[in-house]
Amino acid sequence: SRSALPGPRRTPDAMPKPKSGEEAKVPLQAVVLADSFTQRFRPITLERPKALLPLANVPMIEYVLEFLASNGVEEVFVFCCAHAEQITAYLEQSAWSSTNGFVVHTIVSTNCVSAGEALRLIDHRHVVRADFVLVHGDVVANMDLRRALKAHVDRRKKEKLAIMTMCFKPVTRQLREDRIGDPNLVVVTDPEIDRVLHYEAHAAPSDFPFSQSAAEKQKPRLAPVALDASLFSDHANVSVRTDLLDCNVDICAPEVLYLFTDNFDYQNIRRDFVVGTLNERELGNNIYAHFLEKSEYAVRVDSLRTYDAVSRDVVGRWTFPMTPDQNALPRGERSTYAHGFGNAYREKNVDVDATATIGFGSVIGEGCVVGAGSVVNASTLGRGVVIGKNCVVDGSYVQKNVVIHEGATVNAAFLCEDVVVHAGAVVGKGAVLSYGVVVGAGHVVADYARLSLATQPAHDVDEYDSDEDGLEVGSLPSDGRRVSLGGSGSVTRGRAHTFGGRGAPGLDSDDDASDAAANTVGGSAFVLTDRERAALQKAKRGSPSVDEAGDPVWSAEDVGETGAGRLWHLHGSEQKNEWRFSVAPPDVARAAAAYAAEDAADSDDEASHRRGGDGSDDSGSEASDDEGGETVFRREVAETFLRCVKHGYAEANAVVELQGLKMAENRTFADIARYVLMTVLGLVLPAPKDVTKENLKLYPASPPETAGELLKAAREKVARWAPLLARFLKSEDDQVEMLLTLEEYCSEDEVFRGMGGALLVPAFAKILHMLYDMDVLSEVSVLAWAREKEHAEEEDKKFLKLAAPFVAWLKEADEESDDSDESEDSDSD
Predict the structure, then answer these.
(1) What are the tens digits of pLDDT across the range 805-823?
(2) Is the entire prediction scored with pTM above 0.85?
(3) DSSP-assigned states of every residue in 202-271
């Protein structure tokens, strides 16, 4: 991605200086990341950006902009990737485009696949001129940001390397993990100065169904919290806290952007940047914590579980003054909500039958109709929703223009705009119905099912539960056809926009996107055909959704005979834990069982935490344990990389994939690269025994017949990934280690037993030459490897002897270069 390339570094001399006697006035700036770079809201976000999804009938981006404006922020940069044109158009048409003293710019890049790349691009633009607020576009907050800003600024005056202040809210574990669905978070601080010393987030415990097989009853293996002993010697007091909620509101120095640019492997703000900065204490950069007061609120909506929790908090007035009855949001638009008993809100021009019941915690938008005998409880209805007679809508979120026919039941579900639920149908808890879906009469939508008019992309079945590697991109053309994209392509034109009356010189869109609008890309887009559109209209009228020949267009098993839509399948682990992250409140007993099982496994027995261990007292040697762990790591690298190959990922996307594994295993990129190279070379050989079934097709059935064919095949494979390997293998030591690993692979030693690497032995020297030509290996590292092997035992010089002609050629070229340099020096004298 070009947006990830480092730009020229700013220096004090290059910055504009105020005139004598004047002090430069820099407005308080904020960066809003309007793309979450996750897939948890799919299939909804195939058609609409999450930042524009309504929460209590207000687009989420309105909450964060109001929060910033009310706290004195004067200039905001909204970074957009997915559905950038929708966000840009919304802001351009909103009151934020003409708000005095508050300027909103949009920065568009269709190439970014992570928050790290977004921040690198912002650094290139040179638009951030001082300390700034960093926040996601899905944060709802009423906290006093000025108090946090003052603490940060005062601290920076004394300590220039205090580069970030993170905001935390003290909460109970039940609130954070069960109600909000956030992971188990451990934050270690120095309580005297609120400096963050350690940050570690663990995934929530896996689901433990009440009926389990013997294999399923095994205790989960938990990673223990390991703290550097020096923390206790360097700090008089150390506080280990598990009662904090990360608000995802940060105050950053410009150095934060520089560090993202200098460290291309930083992709995730928390997992990479925060953890990386805390682990590299020798650089002197420090992160501090700011703790919210009891009356303050700040939560990020990062899943449907959090969406439900924050919606209830807005309705329950925990976010005051950001509540419906203030009629302040969206800014500049007219709304007429009145606050009633039991935190029920209702706009004017609502038609509720006298026999209908509107329960506590409900929000009813203008133009809604609720029929006789119907019950609406703890639900949000968008404008224009029509509910027939004797319906039940409980704990659900129903967007505008949805129609629910007589006798239907919707229980703790999420219904997007223009959905139709026909008479007698039942929508189960946690179900998500994307835009325009029709549920047939009498049909039962299963709990936690997800339905969309779009066909689920083939790769999505494997990647659905990823919360860090999916980019939702798409748009809805003006002709009414449905078009949506997944993956890294875009149908948007890269542009930069400024709202509020002031321009930002040099604020361009991504170069790759600004020349011309990109076309629809590979298999991810969907367009309703004329046949499907005709059948959709029939389904909305309650007729069977068939084509002219009488054949069903959609599966009756998914949506019923008079329905329209397709069932999306969840990945195994996502399906297993969907109850935890769905819009339906979690089952208290189920959650308690999961945490009880987690606590039972969390013991002082070190064996229970050992990677690959079963908690037993294994009599094997320590070396045996290490070898087993290294084999597991090698296999994980191979599986992750092969997934990138299978899906045709670009280099930047592959970096994101491998980065997650690097951080999870606390390894270096050089460790990753060594096994990536062996996996690449292995692709020219028959599949090893431990390769997964879905990756078998990536390997040939038999090895190349001749050494020439083998080298040709290897060259093609390595050339594809040489730039990635070169990025990962920066130092001479890293490259030497890679050569030693290549020896092990060809010898089929230790972790490479039975992988067929011995077939590469005759071509070893030419493989080295190939890697040298592709800039994966340097001359210095090859010669250093050769010098190291010269002192080895005779049996360990096998590969040095094979590579002797190539090494001799490098030495000769090196000597000729030195002679040439001496001759030039002599001539100059």
Answers:
(1) 888 888 887 676 665 555 5
(2) no
(3) EPPPPP--SS--TTTTSPPP-PPP---THHHHH-S--EEES-EEEEEEEEE-THHHHHHHH-TT--SIII
